[in-house]
C-alpha cells in the first residue's frame, strides 16, 4: 500500500514538472515566434500569411465574380497551398502580394450577348434582358429582318463595346417591304453616309420640308446629337434637363401613343402626330401628362423629363419622323 502511494507521488511530481516545462517552452515560442502560414503556388514559395482563411476567401470571391461587371467566372490555373509554421515575430506577411500573384495567373471570362442578323454578330449588349428587348422591339416594329434576328450568349476573354438598346433597334430596323412608299426624303448622294440609307434604313440626315415650325420641346442642354456613323445611329437628339422639367408639344397635333412601363429603350414615351406623316417622339419621360387620343396645342405641357427606359440620366430623347423616317431634329429646332 505504502509502496503504491510513493510510486504515485513520484509520478505526480514528474507530471507537474513536465507540464511546467511545456508551459515554459510554449511561452518562449509565443514570445519570440508566431504561427503563420507559408504559402506556395506550384512549387514556389510566394509568401506568408497570418490569416489563411481570409486570404482564401478573397481568392474564392475573385474566382466567382472577378472584379468588374459582366464577369462570368475566372479560371485559375493553380490554387495556393498553405503550411502552418512558426516564424520569428518580425516576419513580414504579404497577403496582398500573394493575392495578386494568384489572380495574375487567372483568366477572366466575360458574359454578354450578341445580337445577330443571319447569324452574323452585329451588336453586343450587356444582359439577356437587353438582347430580348432589342429583338422584341424590332418584331413589334415589324422590321423586315425580324425573322433573321437572333441572340447569342457569349463567354469571351475579351469584353466587347456595348451598344444601347435604342441604338441597336434604330440601326437594325429595316422598313417592311410590303409596298413601296413614296417618300419625301431627298436621297443623299455622294457622301460617305449614302450607303447607310440606300438599303431601307429608317434614318436620314437630309432636311425634309415639313411645313411646320417646331418650338423647343424642353429647356436644357443638347447632350447628344442625331446621327448615323457606319450604320449605327442615334435616332434623335438628347436634351439634358432636371427631372420634372416640363416637356412641351413641339407643334400642335394628336397624341397617338402615350404609355408607361416596359416600352423598350424609350421608357415612358409619347408620340404626337402632326399630320402629313410628321411625328415627334418624346422618350425617357418621368410622368406622361397627355393621353393617347388627346389633341394638344403647340407649347402645351405633355410630359416631364425623366430617366426611364434605357437612359443613364435625366434627359429628353426627342425624335422627328416623317413617314416613319427619322429626321435630324436640329433641322427643325435649335439647341
Ligand atoms: Zn437619345
Helix proportion range: 10-25%
**Cα shape:** elongated
Bound molecules: zinc ion
Largest sheet: 8 strands, antiparallel
In a nutshell, what does this entry contain?
The chain has 335 residues and is of the alpha+beta class. It is built from 6 helices and 19 strands. It has 3 domains: 32-104, no CATH class; 110-172, no CATH class; 194-331, Glucose Permease (Domain IIA), CATH 2.70.70.10.
Overview of the molecule:
The chain has 335 residues and is an alpha+beta fold. The protein is built from 6 helices and 19 strands. The protein has helices at residues 2-32, 52-65, 95-104, 128-140, 165-172, 194-198; strands at residues 33-41, 44-49, 71-76, 81-88, 106-117, 120-125, 149-156, 221-224, 227-229, 232-234, 237-240, 246-248, 253-259, 268-275, 278-285, 295-296, 301-304, 315-322, 325-327. Strand 14 (268-275) and strand 15 form a beta hairpin. Helix 2 runs parallel beside helix 3 (95-104) and helix 4 (128-140) packs parallel to helix 5. The longest helix is centred in the first third of the chain and has 31 residues, at 2-32. The model is unreliable at 180-201 (pLDDT under 50). Zinc ion binds at residues 224, 234, 236, 238, 317.
Amino acid at each position: 500500500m505504502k509502496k503504491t502511494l510513493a510510486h504515485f507521488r513520484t509520478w505526480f511530481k514528474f507530471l507537474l514538472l513536465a507540464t511546467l516545462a511545456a508551459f515554459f517552452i510554449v511561452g518562449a515560442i509565443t514570445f519570440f515566434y508566431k504561427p503563420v502560414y507559408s504559402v506556395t503556388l506550384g512549387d514556389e514559395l510566394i509568401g506568408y500569411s497570418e490569416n489563411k482563411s481570409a486570404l482564401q476567401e478573397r481568392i474564392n470571391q475573385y474566382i466567382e465574380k472577378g472584379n468588374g461587371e459582366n464577369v462570368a467566372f475566372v479560371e485559375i490555373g493553380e490554387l495556393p497551398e498553405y503550411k502552418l509554421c512558426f516564424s520569428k515575430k518580425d516576419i513580414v506577411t504579404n497577403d496582398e502580394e500573394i493575392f495578386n500573384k494568384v489572380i495574375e495567373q487567372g483568366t477572366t471570362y466575360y458574359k454578354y450577348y450578341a445580337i445577330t442578323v443571319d447569324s452574323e454578330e452585329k451588336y453586343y449588349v450587356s444582359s439577356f434582358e437587353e438582347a430580348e428587348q432589342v429583338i422584341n422591339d424590332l418584331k413589334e416594329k415589324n422590321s423586315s429582318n425580324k425573322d433573321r434576328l437572333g441572340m447569342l450568349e457569349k463567354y469571351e476573354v475579351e469584353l466587347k463595346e456595348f451598344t444601347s438598346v435604342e441604338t441597336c433597334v434604330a440601326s437594325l430596323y429595316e422598313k417592311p417591304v410590303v409596298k413601296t412608299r413614296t417618300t419625301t426624303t431627298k436621297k443623299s448622294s455622294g457622301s460617305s453616309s449614302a450607303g447607310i440609307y440606300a438599303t431601307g434604313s429608317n434614318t436620314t440626315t437630309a432636311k425634309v420640308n415639313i411645313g411646320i415650325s417646331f418650338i423647343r420641346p424642353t429647356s436644357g442642354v443638347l447632350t447628344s446629337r442625331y446621327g448615323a456613323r457606319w450604320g449605327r445611329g442615334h435616332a434623335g437628339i438628347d436634351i439634358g434637363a432636371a427631372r420634372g422639367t416640363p416637356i412641351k408639344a413641339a407643334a400642335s397635333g394628336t397624341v397617338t401613343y402615350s404609355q408607361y412601363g416596359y416600352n423598350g429603350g424609350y421608357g415612358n414615351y409619347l408620340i404626337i402626330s402632326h399630320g402629313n406623316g410628321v411625328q415627334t417622339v418624346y422618350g425617357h419621360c418621368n410622368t406622361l401628362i397627355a393621353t393617347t387620343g388627346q389633341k394638344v396645342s403647340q407649347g402645351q405641357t405633355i410630359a416631364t423629363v425623366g430617366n426611364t427606359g434605357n437612359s443613364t440620366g435625366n434627359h429628353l430623347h426627342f425624335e422627328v419622323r416623317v413617314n416613319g423616317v427619322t429626321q435630324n431634329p436640329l433641322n427643325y429646332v435649335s439647341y
